[in-house]
Amino acid sequence: MGNVVYGMHASMDGFIEGPDGGFGFTEPAEDVHQAANDQVRRCGAFLFGRRLYEAMEKPWTEQLGQEGAPAVEREFARLYKETPRYVFSDTLQSVPDGVTIVRRKDAASVVERLKREVDGNLEIGGAELAGSLVDLIDEFLVYEFPVLVGGGKTYLPVESEVRLRLV
């Protein structure tokens, strides 16, 4: 049975992107990158919103992880490519092998099915996708970076109060 996990890098004031849309402040140190690799080993599938998918796909399948890159990056690229990826989008028309397009209207039913069928964590990537599926998320992770950016895209955009249970 899959466990839906939403984890994102964020500033200490709760933003995953700064006011200019940049997220360079989340560049991980090697030990943080190694922790991400360890997390991906427990991952049964990635569930991405379109924008995060586009930010991740090409770099990790074509550019990063190449000869000469740090070992931690090469390992992440290998793990990334081996993990099934689902991109939730109404605009994408095609994706490479290893990636499945899910239309937004089908999002909840697909995630519920994946929870039943996939062993390992179902890692949600993308604040808007997580906000739309908040009732299906089993675990929230915030990887806080020691920076204040003063505005931008929040870690989890929701329209009303959502009560959570601390575990």
TrEMBL record:
Domain of life: Bacteria
InterPro entries found in the cross-reference section: DHFR-like_dom_sf (IPR024072), RibDG_C (IPR002734)
GO BP annotation list: riboflavin biosynthetic process
Domain Bacterial bifunctional deaminase-reductase C-terminal: 4-165
GO molecular-function terms, A-Z: 5-amino-6-(5-phosphoribosylamino)uracil reductase activity
Name this protein carries in UniProt: Dihydrofolate reductase
Source organism: Actinomadura livida
